[in-house]
Amino acid sequence: GQIVYSIAEETECGASVGNIAKDLGIDAATLSARKFRMITGSSKQYFNINASTGALSVNEPIDREQLCELKSVCLLNYELVLENPLELYRMEFKVLDINDNSPSFPLSEYHINIPEFLSPGARFTLPTAQDLDEGANSVQNYTLSPDEHFYLEMQIRGDGSKYPELVLKKALDREQQATHRLVLTAKDGGNPPKSGDVPVIVTVLDTNDNAPEFEHSVYRASILENSPSGTLVVQVHATDLDEGPNGEVRYSFSNTTSADLQRMFSIHPHTGEVTVNGVLAVQRPLLEMLIEARDNGAFGMSSTAKLLVEITDVNNHGPEITITSLSSPIPEDAVPGTVIALLSILDKDPGENGKVTCQISENLPFQLKPSLQNYYSLVTSELLDRELISEYNITITATDLGSPPLTTQKTVWVQISDVNDNPPVFGADAFDVFVEENNPLGVFLYQVSASDPDIGENGRVSYMLRNSTVAGSALTSFLSMNLANGSIYAKRAFDFEQLRSFHFQVEAKDNGSPALSAAIRVNVYISDQNDNAPAILYPTSQNGSVAVEVVPRLADEDYLVTKVVADDEDNAQNAWLSYHLAHSSDSTLFQLSPHTGELRTTRSMRSTDFLKHKVVVVVRDHGDPPLSSTVTVGILLADTLPQALPDFDDSGEPPPLLNATNIYLIVSLACVSFIFAAFIFFLAVIRL
């Protein structure tokens, strides 16, 4: 938006101008938080804004004449920049003129030489006063102190400007009065009016009664602003009706022409050629000078003509790019249309030479949008992705419409800040972990790893085990994990015979806000170790006794005595079993199948064979190293199952005939026979 204020020059410090917050509809309480600032091209800060109330006041009195010189309208342009969000307001201050300058004359006194023989009505140019004020406050009229020989008359030049002339009212007599002292007063139109005086000393001469006359009262010329020194501007010409030295004319700049213009231009005293004398360092398109033509008479007479020089602009100023405000870095999730920078682009040349076009590269996610006059906003045109491009060097090209056009480039470095928009990513769909059983406690099993393309805290990944159960127990009783690097450790020794495999999930989470996460399945396979010896399932013994198998006394060859059955809880080759005879009381009588464990006779039994035998069977697995178990089998040769099994000693020899068992049997038989005989005898006695 734009707002215009008017203020009189020389307004004292602290005077109120307005309230910028109310005028622009801004909450005054937010000015400080939004980092407001006033931007101007002036070297002085003429105004202040109260950060708490938004009141706009004078910071330094303004001198309009010093600030704007001879411009009819004096304007001060300010920009008010607010951030969060970024806003720009343009303020224009129109400085009003007050009558604070009195008219003044370039010289402290003026001298006019008038021949005594001139007739009444002769005219003489008087100096014009200068007043730095404008309009009605500038010079409005002149007055001359009363004198019987002279009066004042205003004249109008061809361009409409007025100037005073001294008119001879009564013929002069040098012998009676050689000098006349007059006072010329210039008055402005202020209220109250101000005036300035200058003495005009008229010297009555006795010679040369014709002044040079220019062909034109106003000369006009046009030159390029980059014209080199020596370039001809115009040639003026004046004639003098006198003859001899009184008719020879010399040209010069009038004293009322400013010293700056007299340094920029030079005039040839004899030819009247006005040429460029230096660099035309002026900002005004029209220059005004007064040229004086004076003859060489003893009392030289003069006249003046106005020279108006129009400076034609040349495209000699390239555009100037100024970064008024820049927001960098910007978050990668900024929506299209987000304002990044505010640019001011100016060209000091007027007209078409000062018109500027501005553009940036088309392959960038940014665009320039015109804002206020001479301002552009650099905004995003599409979504950004820091993971693809983390920074941009944006080259802004400004070209004016001059011929040939001038181009200026400025590079803006914009960084893209990270937003947590990427979850961690694992390198595989699942991880397989292999571990041998009977592992040490705390052994390292595996390290999972996930990457996150974000940076900083948004890319810092931590790991954790997701809650689950394994074989009815909490996962945390089996495993532990390093949260920082994803290393997994065993908290207990695994037993292949109880648990052969299990799976769980690991969650990877970044440290952004809000945090993003991903999970992966980890399969744990437990490999077998040969840690279990074969278990003898049959034949079995109790309390350390020998297992006994009864074989018919006259069994045939290849008779199946028994089959040793064993099992191994290990797996694969650790559970492959083989059977071997470690000991046999008669190696020629029995044989053992190494694969099936069947114990068979190698021949038919003989009556001469011992009644009992003992064999030791070894069951061995194929582990490395192999483990084994043994079982002792007692073999009793009998046709019927005895009431009591005999003992089997280690020798395998037949026991003596009258061993403890046989004696027990004989005593038992005798007792039974005795009781039977006694019973028969008792019955016989009763009957008799």
From TrEMBL:
SMART domains: CA. Keywords: Calcium, Cell adhesion, Cell membrane, Glycoprotein, Membrane, Repeat, Signal, Transmembrane, Transmembrane helix. The chain crosses the membrane at residues 663-686. It is found in: Cell membrane. One of its GO terms (cellular component) is plasma membrane. One of its GO terms (molecular function) is calcium ion binding. Residues 6-105, 106-214, 215-321, 322-426, 427-536, 561-648 form the Cadherin domain. One of its GO terms (biological process) is homophilic cell adhesion via plasma membrane adhesion molecules. Pfam families: Cadherin, Cadherin_2. This is PCDC1 protein. It comes from Quiscalus mexicanus.
